[in-house]
Structure formats: structure tokens, C-alpha cells
Amino acid sequence: MSDVDRLHEMIAAARRIVAFTGAGISTESGIPDFRSLGGIWTKYQPIYFDDFIASEEMRRESWRRKFATDEVMLKAEPNAGHRALAKLVEQGRMSAIITQNIDGLHQRSGVPESRVIELHGNGTYATCLDCGQRYELEPIKKAFLEHDQVPICSKCDGLVKTATISFGQAMPEIAMARAQHETMACDLFIVLGSSLVVYPAAAFPQAAKRNGAGLVIINRDPTDQDDSADLVIHSEIGSVMSRVVGVN
């Protein structure tokens, strides 16, 4: 039996599936992995959350980087891997998608917002750090590029930041709690495109496995958790999942 056939059988037998996605599912949409050679973190020193809060110059630099590197992410489209997961959600077979990605492609593939748990936030909009007011990026970009204006909240005068989790910023408590709940409730946990090196998020696959769920890892390169998985497939996510689920 091929790995694809085995995965198909595991999905068919599962009652409650959770997906855990990392950069690898989005690189197939043309979004570079931040940590890979040539990625953002090899070009820039990260701006830590405390520095963003303390320094207007750091806030200005953060927005400059955002708009200099954002075009690829905002133009990217969901790929076959995203669409396959969306179909499993639509069928009621997948209860949640826990993602380390900030590109919003799961939502754009048709997955309801309520089914996507974003551990590292979302880079397609901004929020006020004080009152939580949401802001779209285009007006912020226009004011920044034309007037060098760093955004301030119009409701409370708080600092406005992209809705992502920065280095040194606490992980989102609600998202982490939801991810933990879904992990412990599932009977099949599928990792797609994560190197499983960023903790605490990378602990979820092992927690699911210890709780009795089947563990599948689909990633181009080996991970440190391959030895504990029930099935490991080193291949492109889109080609595997489109064959398993039946999407283009």
C-alpha cells in the first residue's frame, strides 16, 4: 500500500481530524519561508516587541520592512494543499486548522474564521495594542509612504501594530488554549509543512500522539518528530493532499 493510500485510509477512519500547518504549505503558494536561506530573518535582525513599544524609530522601521516585503504574501493564492484542508473542514471531518502561518490563506481557501487557530497572528491586517481595534493595511501604507506617518489608534491613541506575534511578545492565550483543546479532542493529527522546531507550538503533535491520536507528518524535509509519527511523507503537500482528498 502506498503512503497516499494509507493516508486516505487514516482520514476515512478518523472521526475528528486536526491539521497543524507551517511555512511549507505556503511556500507552495510562492511565499518564502522566513527562516530559510534568503528569507526575511537572514536579511534583517528581528525587531523585538519591547523595542517596538519603546521606540518610535523601531515602529517606523517595522512598518518600513512590512511594506517592503509584503507584496508577495498579499498577492499569493491558496494552493491545492489549502483547498484540500478546506474540503475536509467543509465535510465536517476536520474540526480545526492550527497554523503557524500569518498569511490568511486558510481563510481565503474557504475555511471559516472560527475553524482557523492562528498561533502567530495574522499579517494581513493590523490592530491597536490597547483596545484591539482592527485596521486594514492599505490606508496605513498610504499614510506611511506619502507622509512617513506611523499609525496611532483613532479610538484610544494606542499603538497600532500588524496583528502578528513578534519576537518577545507573549503567545496569544486564547489561541493556545483553543489549540490545546482541539489537540486533545482529535483522533488524527496531521502536520503539514512544519519543521516542528518552534516551541511551544511544536509540542502539540506529541501531545496528540500521547493522547492516543494518530500522527501524520507531511513535510519536504525530515523533522525531529518523524520517529514518533505513524506515517511520514516527504513530499509536496499539494500533490499529496489533492490525491488524498480529491481536489485540483
Automatic annotation (TrEMBL):
InterPro entries: DHS-like_NAD/FAD-binding_dom, NAD-dep_sirtuin_deacylases, Sirtuin, Ssirtuin_cat_dom. It is an enzyme of class 2 (transferase). Residues 1-248 form the Deacetylase sirtuin-type domain. It holds the Pfam family SIR2. The active site is at residue 120. Gene3D superfamilies: 2.20.28.200, TPP-binding domain (3.40.50.1220). PANTHER family: NAD-DEPENDENT PROTEIN DEACYLASE, NAD-DEPENDENT PROTEIN DEACYLASE SIRTUIN-5, MITOCHONDRIAL-RELATED. This is protein acetyllysine N-acetyltransferase. It comes from Enhydrobacter aerosaccus.
